[in-house]
Specification:
422 residues, alpha/beta, Aspartate Aminotransferase, domain 2, Aspartate Aminotransferase, domain 1, 2 domains, 7-stranded mixed beta sheet, globular, binds D-serine
Amino acid sequence: MDLYTHIEGQDKEVFNALKGEETREREGIELIPSENYVSKAVREAQGSIFTNKYSEGYPGKRYYGGQEFTDQVETLAIERAKELFGAKYANVQTHSGANANIAMYMALLQPGDTVLGMDLSHGGHLTHGHPVTYITKFFNFVRYKMKDVETGEIDYDEMRRVAIEAKPKIVLAGFSAYSRELDYEKFVSIAREVGAYAVIDIAHIAGLIAGKAAKNPFDYGFDVMTSTTHKTLRGPRGGLILTRESEEIAKKVDKAVFPGLQGGPLMHVIAGKAVAFGEALQPQFKTYAAQVIKNAKAMEEVFRARNVRMLAGGTSNHLILADVFGSLGIPGKEAEKLLDSVGITLNKNVIADDTRSPMDPSGIRFGTPAITTRGFKEKESARVAELMLDALAAKDEPAKLEAIHQEIKDLCAKFPIPDSFV
Ligand code: DSN
């Protein structure tokens, strides 16, 4: 267990919350596909004295003095991010993926301009233009969807028709709840045809791209990639904006992040990003990224064998969306709660053309980044999928649920969360 000597001595309430979370993470199976476990090296950087420092500006161009070490660490993060993704420019300062997307809009658009992005209910993200977000007061969003929710194929013909009609300035690829690869050539060709920037939000699959287990959108001509750093990429919580080759775009991005949107960068988090990017550059990260997908496929096979409908027919990445209401008569919210009670954490999720409400949807979303970090291979991943479905089938049988919970705890004890990946 971790030591929090100073917190323990001075603040029992926070200490108790920390210990509680530690036990929850150690003894439970984390299947939320946007979460992961970072190394102790990343946590040391994130908990470091860099939190004391104000560093508005960029390396070599700061507003305050005392920047020799902040410059070093931010430059390391930038150079490593560029190498990982084959980008000419990287901005590592955004505090989150949402901020990265907002800064990207501010860099590339004028108020009133249009963005063509994926519909939330078909896998897109709130920041891709959902009406509840403030960005929709400043920019206009039009959408594309899947043509066939059983295969996941995007309706590229309709997307092109909408692009020609709406003349977006950005064609935005990327998702937070979609389990197939996108046809990058089609996105870029539609963007070029209508004179738009081709941008992709790779937050979910950044680690798969960095680990060469998924295609790199820059190889297909995307102009900009936005991301988080804490999902499959296994870094500290934060954002990232990568520009393939245009210095003009990169300059606009830097200005939009600071001073456009944010103030002082979180230099302790940037130090954590530098450490995590260094880890992702190691050869073993490729093995990790490939295993994430193999494990998701192993879970997919169990769901298919037990006749549970998966959106897009299954997965080609790290996540699965399952229609538990349609297949088992259990709403996503109830499934989330029941699985939580046996030590499996995942999230309820709206599915395409859902007949239920977003707060009480039909689906669940789960994935393999965290269990793969723990060392699970196909065998353990398939077993987790079996246990999930066994638990849902035994929802009114406390003794069976207790036995499942015990097996989950035993599995977690056998595969402790590692401290280091290098
Ligand atoms: N909250 C993230 C996710 O779970 O996908 C996206 O913002």
